[in-house]
Amino acid sequence: MWVILLVLLITPISALPFASDMVGRVTVGVLDRYQSTCVYLIHTTHQQVTSRHSDVLQMKAIVAARPTTVAVIFANSHIRTLREEGCRPLRLIISDNGKAGLQKYLRQESTINDMSEGRWLLFLDKVTSLEEYFSDVDIPLSCEFVVAQLSDKTNDRDFMVSLTEVFYVHPSRPLQTHRIGNWSSGDGFMWSTKPFVDRRGDLQGVTIQSGVHSKELPKEIERCKERTALKFCGEIGEIWHILQEILNFTSAYYVAEDGVFGAKRADGTWNGVMNLTISKKVEVGIGMFILTEERVPAVYFLPPILNSRMSVHMQEPRTDGYTWSYMLAPFSYGMRWTVFASVLVLTAFLSTTWYFGDRFGNSPEVENYSLCNSWITVLASFFQQGHATTPRSWSCRLVFFTSYLTAVTLLVAYSATFISFLAVRKTALPFADFEGMLNDGTYRLGLFPNSAQMNYLQNSPDAILRGVFEKLVKPGYDSLPTNDVDGLRRICGNWNYAFLISPFFVRQSYGYYHCTLVEVPGASLHTSVSIIMNKKSNYKRLFTRR
């Protein structure tokens, strides 16, 4: 059994030109449309118990085939609906001649409670103007409020009921009405196929209060308006600018006084942009907010913009004998032995073929390829040097050819390996992960103050990560960088400084720092980031397109 916790008003069905079975059939159709499992009958006047009882019994009989709870609620009880009970109710209101009482109730409900917690179905006479009726009732953008009114008969027997959706984009804008369906006693329901987000996708230029951690971010977003097609104005700037164009709204920016994204304090409160969003001083927090266990219950995250990792970055360590180390690196142990063995073998072959080649015309007086001279000749070929004379015997010439071919092959192999060493440098890092960084102890780690990264290190169940915070972060807590560029420039100004940042933002900030950075892949945190909104924001469903 569903727990009924909402208290509203009741008016008799008989006071309107709607028959009880018509009200029931329309209500059942709306229930099916919105997949609600409970109905609250809201009356605007107290009437006799027998009359109320008969209305409820009739409604229950109509929906008896469905697992639906029907209840009568009075306005003087003011019980709130608990969404966690699993029932998002359809609140059924049947207006009678006492419209003033109903309008007063709706005004109070829209002021005190969140009308979007349930769906609303109001049966209203067709002569009443919707604009006048809801002139003082603030129906928010996220609320699904449907008004049923009798239309002209399609024939002598069939009745037509129009179903109109009403809402305000903003209290300063006029009431919006959309015909979402019709019901006739002969043909049943005909629903509009236009999705919810398309019906409400134009915010008519309203201003949305937006929180940012830095005054530079609004400037970045504004630059997107005048950018050329090939100019990139920042990931967040691009996304927010596109949202403003698609949904037709503007932004008023509020910079957090402490200039941080926000973290939870010891007393349970928040600071930074998180505080602005939770306290509803702003509707949305713009920035790359990391999804954390503490943040998710406090604010609403839009779908992830980026799945990334936060890695430790540092300045590329200096290497002693930098040039010579890269020049000699291709000479591996195997290659050195290959060169040495080739020289010995070719020397022996050249001297031997010369010694036994007199009968082929070699003249000892002109050419003397003793072991010593042969060794010098072969060695010269390995240094790409030529010779004044050439042996006349084909056997000696074959050794010459083999010697030069071997030398050229080794040179090509060395050159290719040398270029690969220059193109792909393998830097010897002082540590490979957080544990190595902690044991090294010579580096200071920078990250944003009051950030998700800091909270993760500070409260991690891993003793190594807590040690990194206590020994490498906490000593410089009062001078931590407040933006990406500041952190990257500190790396360039200090050999023993490292910064925890996403590789994506390192690439995006290229040109703002002037040194070679290297990433420590083993010292990283995997994260998802997105824009945040207040939990009760009326724009949540519109921004997520759900």
UniProtKB/TrEMBL annotation:
<protein>
    <recommendedName>
        <fullName>Ionotropic glutamate receptor L-glutamate and glycine-binding domain-containing protein</fullName>
    </recommendedName>
</protein>
<keyword id="KW-0732">Signal</keyword>
<keyword id="KW-0813">Transport</keyword>
<keyword id="KW-0407">Ion channel</keyword>
<dbReference type="GO" id="GO:0015276">
    <property type="term" value="F:ligand-gated monoatomic ion channel activity"/>
</dbReference>
<comment type="similarity">
    <text>Belongs to the glutamate-gated ion channel (TC 1.A.10.1) family.</text>
</comment>
<keyword id="KW-0472">Membrane</keyword>
<feature type="transmembrane region" description="Helical">
    <location>
        <begin position="368"/>
        <end position="386"/>
    </location>
</feature>
<dbReference type="InterPro" id="IPR057074">
    <property type="entry name" value="IR75A_N"/>
</dbReference>
<keyword id="KW-0812">Transmembrane</keyword>
<dbReference type="Pfam" id="PF00060">
    <property type="entry name" value="Lig_chan"/>
</dbReference>
<dbReference type="GO" id="GO:0005886">
    <property type="term" value="C:plasma membrane"/>
</dbReference>
<dbReference type="Pfam" id="PF24576">
    <property type="entry name" value="IR75A_N"/>
</dbReference>
<feature type="domain" description="Ionotropic glutamate receptor L-glutamate and glycine-binding">
    <location>
        <begin position="231"/>
        <end position="317"/>
    </location>
</feature>
<feature type="signal peptide">
    <location>
        <begin position="1"/>
        <end position="15"/>
    </location>
</feature>
<dbReference type="Pfam" id="PF10613">
    <property type="entry name" value="Lig_chan-Glu_bd"/>
</dbReference>
<dbReference type="InterPro" id="IPR001320">
    <property type="entry name" value="Iontro_rcpt_C"/>
</dbReference>
<keyword id="KW-0406">Ion transport</keyword>
<keyword id="KW-1133">Transmembrane helix</keyword>
<keyword id="KW-0675">Receptor</keyword>
<dbReference type="InterPro" id="IPR052192">
    <property type="entry name" value="Insect_Ionotropic_Sensory_Rcpt"/>
</dbReference>
<dbReference type="GO" id="GO:0050906">
    <property type="term" value="P:detection of stimulus involved in sensory perception"/>
</dbReference>
<feature type="domain" description="Ionotropic receptor 75a N-terminal">
    <location>
        <begin position="119"/>
        <end position="210"/>
    </location>
</feature>
<feature type="domain" description="Ionotropic glutamate receptor C-terminal">
    <location>
        <begin position="338"/>
        <end position="437"/>
    </location>
</feature>
<keyword id="KW-1003">Cell membrane</keyword>
<keyword id="KW-0325">Glycoprotein</keyword>
<dbReference type="InterPro" id="IPR019594">
    <property type="entry name" value="Glu/Gly-bd"/>
</dbReference>
<keyword id="KW-1071">Ligand-gated ion channel</keyword>
<feature type="transmembrane region" description="Helical">
    <location>
        <begin position="398"/>
        <end position="424"/>
    </location>
</feature>
<feature type="transmembrane region" description="Helical">
    <location>
        <begin position="337"/>
        <end position="356"/>
    </location>
</feature>
